[in-house]
Amino acid sequence: MKRILLTYTLAFILLPVYGGEGGSSPAEKKSLLIDYVDPFIGTTNFGTTNPGAICPNGMMSVVPFNVMGSSENKYDKDARWWSTPYEHTNCFFTGYAHVNLSGVGCPELGSLLLMPTTGELNVDYKEYGSKYKDEQASPGYYSNYLTKYNVKTEVSATPRTSIARFTFPKGKSHILLNLGEGLTNESGAMLRRVSDCEVEGMKLLGTFCYNPQAVFPIYFVMRVKKTPVTTGYWKKQRPMTGVEAEWDPDQGKYKLYTRYGKEIAGDDVGTYFSFDTEEGEQVEVQMGVSFVSIENARLNLDREQEGRNFEQIHAEARAKWNDDLSRITVEGGTDAQKTVFYTALYHLLIHPNILQDVNGEYPAMESDKILTTQGNRYTVFSLWDTCRNLHQLLTLVYPDRQREMLRSMTGMYEEWGWLPKWELYGRETFTMEGDPAIPVIVDSWMKGLRDFDVAKAYEAMRKSATTPGAQNRMRPDLDPYIEKGYIPLGFYAKDLAGDTSVSHALEYYMADAALSLLADSLGHGDDARLFRARSLGYKRYYSPESGTLRPLHPDGTFLSPFDPKAGENFTAAPGFHEGSAWNYTFYVPHDVEGLAKLMGGRRKFIDKLQMVFDEGLYDPANEPDIAYAYLFSRFRGEEWRTQRETRRLLERYFTTAPDGIPGNDDTGTMSAWAVFTMLGLYPDCPGEPYYTLTSPTFDRAEIDTERGTLVIEKHGEGYIDRMTLGDKPLKNYRILHDDLLKGGKLTFELQTGK
């Protein structure tokens, strides 16, 4: 259909690559959808996205590393809590990191640092790092120019491997692989020389978001496509004192191993390849990775790069991205709006990513076992974030991928007894709260994705919803939730400054509401009624005095004194996680009408919700309130407010600048919000198969779905006056997924005024 096939890849490599400073290519150059993508969007303002090379949902990403080694950097990983290998305002490049996370809030991965240098060999990253200029980035490609060395660097990627191309000046040139530094908080690595042009090894990664046991190895094979003049290792030596120090001139320094060629291991080790290069000579470097074994890393490299050079790999990456982005085509709007849209679509197709090697092997969940899958096994399930919209978009536009993610999640349950919460490369990090796999799975099931083991999934969901807290890995504070209908202050976190009891309970309410829908669908009526009743326990938290949800003591009394604004800007506040009471009070998507009644009726609900926006109490980077703007449309006559606020939010927070994402992208969640909103619909309640409508950005959008092309058209500007679905009048602003796809064409007639 609209998708560009790989047969056109030769044409792709003839197109120039653009990017940098939040910009993209000129309009006349944008002949492909990938030309609208600007990977520099979200690379500052804590967006934590990266401009490096990656394939859609690929294991490998190769990213410029610029967050250590220089006092001229604004953000240094060793000077503060930092969670990304690249920051747009920094200036000091110390290599390319292989396998990275996009849009996360904790430091992890970002290691295997590959660096070209010239002149005398120096292996101290504080000294060999370089400033750079002429950054360029597009899907599957990144390049810069190292001013210290007059070296042009370029990288591209396949799903499991990377390729770098360095253009050197005449003279002594070096390629360094640093295993001692990186973004991860773990340490320890091993290197082995296979030949003059090839090394293999492993590095330990993990401890993501405070979990010291969420540790795993990454294995690699690296090849240089030019025979070096010399090769060797280095290792940072421990400092010594006294007589011992007198006997070791390398103590406390980086020691070069010029004659030793067997295995080497340590906390801070690396290897170098030195060359005599001619002016403009290009050297390519290949890297294959695996989370199973060195043998599999080599197999991945051989299978995905055999017989291919840099240009061919780059062209294939571009083709993959253009194929995926072409699932949605838009007409109308400005070039800037298309850049925001397609960059957001690009960002949400990074995670979750594949985990298995080309032979199907992958590390089993929370185990040392190696298993084999027939399809794709996915990892990086940041479900507290992505349960709200990203998986809903995959269900609509990329259903085959979502099916395999559902199978991956149920597979994790079979392997270690629980569904994932925030899973990372076979380890559960237990980051954030709730039971977010439930609404993800239920949402897909209710929208018709049913070719997975739903009985096993239901078994897993019921286990986490009923197992006593002491034995419950997903809901450790479940006991009072069942007994009292709420989680009291101090039950799970004795330090009230770090207590997140209300946040925990609200996530359980949402999960149980979704579980009740699945139970009903499967014919488990008693369960459906039980979990629905539990989901309404949020009412206990409502305080008429504050007009918000409010933490409760074990005896049922409200926390006092209480400031509903406490917790703003990610400060600690009793009861709430990374937000204030205002960021959570309307977070009852499964019972909006019930919440309105609790607040005193429709009018008071609307006025209070509008106040949240008018007084700056809304946090665009906080997931619990991410759907607030769509709640207005639950009440007839107030739908215009949804349209006004979504338009305002898009214009203010989603731009083509490097800070054009409102904070952390949360593995694509913020980007998914932008994509849905620009299309004119949004899944406002995880688990329920509905979308709430708003005025779209583009005149026309075509979406490839499993049931044919869904067309969304807009005529005029302003607010929605009339809507049709399949040429039939549409009165409701909330529409079933099935009805939307059956209708095939959704048309909005807009006019100025409300």
Strand order of the largest sheet: 3-6-7-8-9-18-13-12-11-16
Characterize the overall form.
globular
Determine the number of helices (DSSP H or I, runs of at least 4 residues): 20
CATH homologous superfamily descriptor of the largest domain: GH92 mannosidase domain
What is the end-to-end distance? Answer: 38 Å
Beta-strand percent range: 15-25%
CATH topology of the largest domain: GH92 mannosidase fold
Oligomerization category of the chains in this entry: single chain
For the report, how would you describe the main beta sheet? 10 strands, antiparallel
Contiguous uncertain segments of 5+ residues = 1-28
Count of individual beta strands: 36
Rg over C-alpha atoms, rounded to the nearest angstrom? 26 Å
User: pLDDT average, as an integer?
Assistant: 94
